[in-house]
Design brief:
Length: 345
């Protein structure tokens, strides 16, 4: 019934940030408050006998103030963009979820088209550490069928796989008819993390960059729609996200020893990325770059672009009526000694 806002700035609280903070429980009270409480107290005092009409008026006052602040933020962001001086303002959670809901509906329509047409779609996500690959993939797949959308995130190769042709471990995961396969990192490890961290020789990387366009041309000739995304994050934002993982028990699993070692090699990764783009950005499998310092805008931009690359058709609404349930015909719930889980919530 009431709107939850930040008592200092009037914005919706960023729960991902505050829940990760060790100060969350202490700050929860003052940050999650009923909208308009400050205006309410100023208007009628702290008397408990003040009627609900005063609260309603105070909430209107707070809402006007909040709208004015948001308008100023948008205006400032637009002015900054026009002058080339800064990113757009942070997207509010409600606006983000509203746009994501629409895109989820379109992804379902795309899924039904893929199933009906037998299309084969392969999506590759590459990028710097903490650029948001996993979060983007999660938002793409959370409302569609795992039988159609399949995520591939391979571990480090085994000794046997190291002896194989490099692309061999990826081939079994390529899509068949009616499938969308999403690679959370891919064969492009050979162009990025492997040469930077010393897991392969310069000659092996050079050989890979020579052969990759031909392999991807063969994929395109077999009817696979290959979409390659590179997620780019700034050095400062990468630092902030890595530091947040250190203190967040929900994210600590994302911080590997390799991440810590690779953190200091920013420009080695930049050079490897540039060489990869030069060698493998082709007409049949181009790279698409997404800037993801702003995670919410980045996810929306990636999903909307993905949808624009697939020639799916909108879903035709169906007139569905639930059938009548059968009669119990004497059935009675038996008194069985079953184990029910506790219900503390």
């Amino acid at each position: 019934m009431f709107e939850l806002i930040c008592c200092e700035c009037g914005d919706d609280p960023d729960l991902d940030y505050w829940e990760a903070s060790p100060e969350f429980q202490r700050l929860r009270g003052p940050y999650l408050i009923v909208a308009g409480i400050a205006a309410y107290r100023e208007h009628v005092g702290d008397s408990p006998s003040a009627g609900p009409s005063h609260l309603s008026e105070a909430r209107k006052m707070a809402k006007k103030g909040k709208q004015a602040r948001r308008g100023a933020q948008v205006a400032a962001g637009s002015a900054g963009q026009g002058a080339g001086a800064g990113p757009p303002p942070k997207m509010k959670r409600k606006e983000y979820e509203r746009e994501m809901r629409l895109l989820h509906g379109e992804l379902v329509a795309m899924q039904e088209w893929v199933k009906a047409s037998g299309a084969k779609i392969c999506i590759v996500f590459e990028g710097r550490d903490t650029a948001g690959k996993g979060g983007t993939i999660k938002r793409i797949t959370e409302r569609v069928s795992p039988r159609v959308f399949r995520v591939v995130a391979l571990p480090a190769p085994t000794e046997r796989e190291k002896s194989q042709m490099y692309i061999q471990r990826y081939l079994p995961h390529f899509p068949a008819a009616g499938e969308v396969v999403i690679f959370d990192r891919s064969w492009y490890n050979r162009a990025g993390v492997e040469p930077v961290m010393g897991f392969c020789t310069p000659e092996e990387t050079e050989r890979f960059l020579e052969l990759a366009p031909g392999v991807e041309k063969a994929m395109a000739d077999e009817g696979i729609l290959l979409l390659k995304y590179w997620l780019e994050v700034s050095a400062g934002e990468q630092t902030r996200r890595l530091q947040s993982r250190i203190h967040d028990p929900r994210k600590i699993w994302k911080l590997s020893d390799l991440d810590l070692k690779s953190y200091s090699r920013w420009y080695d990764y930049s050079r490897a990325r540039d060489a990869m783009f030069t060698a493998t950005d082709t007409a049949w499998a181009p790279w698409y770059i997404a800037h993801t310092d702003n995670k919410r805008r980045g996810r929306l931009n990636i999903i909307s672009h993905l949808l624009s690359q697939v020639p799916y058709k909108p879903l035709t609404p169906r007139d569905i009526t639930l059938p009548k349930r059968q009669r119990p015909s004497g059935y009675v719930e038996p008194d069985l000694p079953l184990r029910h889980i506790p219900a503390p919530f």
